[in-house]
Design brief:
By secondary structure, the protein is of the alpha+beta class. It is built from 14 helices and 53 strands.
Length: about 950
């Protein structure tokens, strides 16, 4: 009896417990539903609120973090976070911060208000009518900040001391002289400018010792520079205007920052610049001229002296200078690390124009020649750069009047080795391959070792299609040959070449290369100390090769990467870390190619064992860490599709500190999530993509879907996409928030058939997704830009499965585009079809049938899908007549087509107003065809030229825009 009663009681208790659990579960579900109900979909008016992380850095001692929060359409904010105090200091409109080398101060710029800068940009205000930049000086010990108004520029020494130098803007009126207010505040009334804001206006320079407070000013300063160790400051001065009664001394001056003592190095009126010190600040060099300012092409000279020299110096008359060559004003001299050599730039003298010629009497013509190295548009695009090109030369300072020219017109690129301490340099010449580079972009070059004592050149790699890297101490050249996939080392002293990976079966070049060009190498990860070994990457792992070739190669990650589909890399943690100790712990950036997780592993190079996992997560960014110079402190950003990038700091990546928290407003909006999907293409290949679903996704509901594509995008699964007006493509986040599915399929290509490859991967992926009941198969659209835009144009000629299409800057006629120009660079477009993205693999004459097969223009009668084309008249990549050809064909065929030409804008939209415009049109277009919403007037009526700038056509019938 007792047993039965106990059983009954227990059953009743269990029933009550289950009922309560069900009630709790229902309450939680209801609460979640209410929370979701309180959230709202994104609308286009909120984009300006979204922020991003700009610069981020650690102080040298690792105690402070500086990071910038950038706004889309308002002022940025600069933040300083104390890792020992957990205190965050924010400065509105702050940017471009610099920690002093001793980590005691930070100096930063304070910009004028964004709204004022915008008024200047759109020419509603003149520059002198708004405030000038200010700077802030933050004492990191006291957290006290000092703000200084009207600052033109500032500098601090890179490696020593707490010194600051800054140039003051000209005061605009005497009444402003004692105004100590924040200069970045907008002026109530426009005052007259102090003069033309030119780069050649001399200004007042102020030198400050931030610790002692000592300060000194110097008038009429043009250019200035600290030595890296902060012991010396050099500057040049100039007359503001010619005055025969002016007795002021002008020229070049040197200041000892310990005593603020000043001495004059050059007593000449002229233009002196490009100041450089040796590492210990015992020597200084610069270039200068005393030619009249109005002379078109001035003759510059080298000036060089010891900083303890008490005598004034004269220009150097260099021996060994070729006829009609001179010192270049466009290259800063550079001392070798040991201070024994000085590297300078030389250049051919430029011919002066004949100013007596009358322009109207002479033709203004470009003469194109088949013998030209580069076609005329490319020459004209690079003209100013070529005028400023300098050719590296060296002076042995034991004989400072003799120069040895290392580079010249036959070999214009030279790289110094071992920070200039080596007796050799690396020379590169592409002269023999310039003509063919118009269609062959393998980048063939001849590589030489140059003796810096004699100028003698030794060829060690001819017509190399690959890459050359020099070991930090300058003992070895390591180079990759894309034609055979081999890495080799070249001993610069012995002139011996050894192939490093000849006996290895693993590939060290792109295993997935699907372009008709030579596969690119995965690259060098790092060198080890004393030029002992080089670390080279394959697709997954990192290998260690003995540079002398005496030891067999070791897989330093022990094949763990390939076995687990993880790609390892070693980051450049700090610019001053040139090589790695083989026996020290090394952090590896890691990316899982299968599930798209990223994170950090650790290993010791010399062990060649499986690396140890530190952290892996469904985020992106940790693997791109950098390090404080003098502390074991790492900084990185971390993000996911749901979480915007924020700044993190850690000493071991296991215990991390979140420093920033941007975009808190996101909690008020519906978002979404991404998930990997796989399927088999029509041709039986395995395929991968990402499906983005709304946050409140309901599997019992049918959703419209937009398909966006560009090469391979699945690695972006954990990347954040901030709501922002688009430069050309859809904003995934906006559309997912507004109850769309977004699908991004990866595409692999068969050479010669890029159009059919797009069909194979994109259409098969869409068909696979349509099998899900939550995809509305009759409401699917496609969108792409540039190469993706081409594929949109092709797909709508091959299928009628899409309800709408949007294409940006598409190539529709490869036969005409083949002979076109990429106006942004001036290059011929032929290489793109023969070797790179367009993937035809042959010339137009070798395979005209392939060009026609892959040209949607010839199949426009098959199109039934409504389509919008965006193609802008200043497109620097794809000639905009390609968009015109597509529009004119569809218009002639009376197919539903619209074309947007954003006047004066580029391949991808640059102007914010244009981005906002296209975003709104995209939403209206897709909402109409995929959600059955009314069509706006720009679609139903167009926007006649007579209404341009008056009515943008966004309104609907019986409404006003």
């Amino acid at each position: 009896m007792k047993s039965k009663l106990s059983t009954k009681i227990l059953r009743n208790y269990a029933t009550q417990l289950m009922t309560k659990k069900a009630m709790y579960a229902a309450a939680i579900a209801l609460l979640a539903t209410n929370v979701d109900a309180q959230k709202k979909p994104l609308d286009l008016t909120v984009f300006d609120e979204w922020q991003s992380i700009g610069m981020k850095e650690l102080s040298n001692n690792g105690s402070w973090v500086a990071y910038q929060v950038n706004a889309q359409e308002s002022d940025n904010t600069l933040n300083f976070f104390g890792l020992k105090t957990d205190k965050n200091l924010s400065f509105h409109r702050g940017e471009q911060s610099v920690f002093t080398a001793d980590s005691k101060f930070t100096v930063f710029k304070i910009r004028p208000f964004y709204k004022d800068l915008k008024l200047v940009r759109i020419k509603k205000k003149k520059e002198h009518e708004i405030a000038k930049d200010s700077i802030g000086i933050l004492n990191l010990a006291t957290n006290q900040v000092e703000k200084l108004p009207n600052i033109k520029s500032f500098k601090t020494p890179k490696k020593g001391g707490s010194f600051l130098a800054y140039l003051l803007e000209k005061e605009e009126s005497k009444n402003d002289k004692n105004d100590k207010s924040d200069s970045t505040k907008t002026k109530d009334k426009a005052s007259k400018p102090a003069g033309k804001d030119k780069k050649d206006t001399p200004l007042e320079l102020v030198l400050r010792n931030l610790i002692s407070g000592q300060k000194k000013s110097f008038k009429n300063v043009m250019n200035y520079e600290f030595s890296e160790n902060g012991k010396q400051l050099i500057f040049s001065t100039k007359q503001e205007k010619k005055d025969s009664l002016d007795k002021t001394k002008y020229g070049v001056f040197l200041v000892n920052t310990a005593t603020f003592a000043q001495k004059q190095l050059v007593d000449t009126i002229g233009d002196f610049k490009q100041f450089a010190f040796d590492e210990l600040a015992n020597k200084v060099a610069f270039v200068g001229t005393s030619d009249d300012e109005k002379k078109e092409n001035k003759t510059y000279y080298l000036y060089y002296t010891a900083t303890n020299n008490s005598q004034q110096i004269k220009k150097s008359e260099l021996l060994g200078l070729k006829k009609d060559w001179q010192v270049s004003e466009n290259r800063q001299p550079k001392f070798s690390k040991d201070g024994n050599s000085l590297f300078i730039g030389l250049m051919p003298k430029l011919a002066d124009k004949d100013t007596t010629l009358i322009a109207d009497d002479y033709a203004n013509v470009d003469v194109w020649s088949y013998k030209d190295d580069f076609i005329q548009p490319q020459q004209l695009k690079n003209l100013e750069r070529e005028k400023k090109r300098s050719y590296l030369s060296v002076i042995d300072l034991s004989n400072p009047v003799k120069v040895i020219q290392l580079a010249d017109l036959d070999m214009n690129q030279v790289e110094i080795l071992n920070e200039g301490n080596s007796n050799f340099a690396l020379g590169t010449s592409d002269n023999a391959y310039r003509l063919s580079s118009n269609w062959d972009v393998t980048g063939r070059k001849d590589y030489y070792i140059i003796n810096t004592k004699t100028g003698q050149r030794e060829l060690f790699a001819k017509a190399l299609a690959g890459k050359v890297e020099i070991s930090p101490n300058g003992k070895f050249a390591v180079f990759y040959n894309a034609e055979n996939g081999f890495w080799s080392s070249y001993n610069i002293e012995t002139k011996e070449t050894k192939v490093l990976n000849k006996k290895l079966k693993v590939k060290f070049y792109d295993e997935e290369n699907d372009s008709p060009t030579l596969a690119q190498e995965y690259g060098v990860a790092y060198f080890t100390d004393n030029d002992e070994t080089v670390l080279i990457k394959d697709r997954y792992d990192i290998w260690e090769f003995d540079l002398a070739g005496n030891r067999r190669p070791e897989n330093m990650t022990n094949g763990f990467g390939r076995k687990h589909n993880i790609t390892f890399d070693i980051n450049q943690l700090n610019d001053d870390i040139k090589s790695l100790n083989r026996d020290n712990l090394v952090y590896l950036g890691a990316f899982n190619n299968q599930n798209k997780q990223s994170g950090v592993y650790q290993t010791i190079i010399s062990n060649a064992k499986n690396p140890e996992k530190v952290v892996m997560s469904n985020t992106w960014g940790t693997q791109k860490m950098t390090k404080a110079l003098n502390a074991n402190e790492f900084i990185y950003t971390k993000e996911s599709f749901q979480n915007s990038p924020d700044v993190y700091v850690s000493t071991n990546f296991k215990d991390e500190k979140k420093i920033s928290a941007i975009n808190p407003q996101q909690k008020d909006y519906l978002w979404g999530n991404g998930e990997l999907v796989t399927w088999k293409t029509y041709s039986g290949k395995e395929a991968t993509g990402v499906v983005y679903k709304p946050e409140n996704f309901d599997p019992n509901k049918k959703y419209p879907m937009i398909v966006y594509f560009y090469e391979k995008l699945s690695d972006n699964l954990n990347r954040y996409q901030a709501p922002a007006p688009t430069p050309s493509r859809i904003n995934h986040t906006y559309f997912v928030s507004n109850d769309y599915i977004v699908f991004t399929p990866d595409i692999s290509y068969t050479i010669g058939h890029p159009g059919k490859s797009a069909e194979d991967y994109i259409n098969s992926g869409v068909e696979a997704l349509k099998k899900n009941t939550w995809v509305n198969g009759s409401k699917i659209a496609i969108q792409g830009q540039s190469w993706g835009g081409y594929q949109v144009a092709h797909l709508i000629t091959a299928t009628n499965m899409y309800a709408a299409a949007w294409t940006g800057a598409p190539v529709v006629n490869m036969t005409s585009a083949y002979g076109g120009i990429r106006w942004g660079t001036g290059m011929s477009r032929q290489f793109q079809y023969e070797q790179t993205q367009s993937r035809i693999g042959k010339t137009l004459w070798e395979a005209p049938e392939l060009y026609i097969e892959n040209s949607p223009l010839f199949n426009m009668p098959k199109v039934t899908t409504p389509v919008v084309i965006m193609h802008n008249d200043e497109d620097g990549a794809v000639p905009w007549y390609q968009g015109i050809e597509m529009f004119m064909a569809l218009r002639r065929l009376q197919k539903p087509v619209w074309m947007l030409n954003y006047n004066g804008d580029d391949h991808n939209l640059i102007k914010r107003a244009n981005k906002n415009d296209i975003q709104q049109r995209q939403v209206q277009f897709f909402d109409h065809y995929l959600k059955d919403k009314p069509a706006p007037k720009w679609m139903t009526e167009g926007v006649p030229a007579i209404k341009k700038g008056i009515d943008w056509g966004f309104g609907y019938e019986n409404t006003i825009d």
